[in-house]
Amino acid sequence: MHPKRLQSPNAKRPKVSNRDMDGLVNAAWEQGWWCERGGSNYVKCYPPNGSRMIPIQSTPSNPRRARANKMAALRRAGLKI
Q1: Which of 44, 46, 61, 76 is most deeply packed, by most CB within 10 A?
Q2: Cα separation, 25 vs 37, whole angstroms
Q3: Is the pLDDT of residue 25 over 80?
Q4: Which residues pair with 57 in a beta bridge?
């Protein structure tokens, strides 16, 4: 569990307007990641080990490859999908 999640147990995950990207944020949140709203419709996802931040766009520019690219980045950071 990410340290910020332990500090604020009543925090809720940020919502994303794109359904596919919202599913990725939900999967990260359920596995103990910390997700917070960034600027310009981005959600910043931090893994529990604190290795690196993965930004997720609310409205991806290339919807055909956006989900696959973010899934690969989240897997490299340790998310079990």
Answers
A1: 46
A2: 11
A3: yes
A4: 42
Alpha-carbon gap, residue 47 to 65, rounded angstroms: 22
> What pairs with residue 37 in β-bridges?
43
pTM for this entry? 0.89
- In terms of phi and psi (left: phi > 0; alpha: psi -120 to 50; beta: otherwise), the region of 49 is alpha
> Which CATH number is 3-75 given?
3.30.920
Is 44 strand, coil or helix? strand
Which structure tokens are listed for 62?
């290339």
The closest alpha carbon to 56, from 18, 3, 6, belongs to: 18
Residue 70 confidence (pLDDT): 93
Location of structure tokens 């980045």 = 73
Two structure tokens written together for 42: 């981005």
Per-residue pLDDT of 44-76, as tens digits, reads 999 998 889 999 988 877 778 888 999 999 999
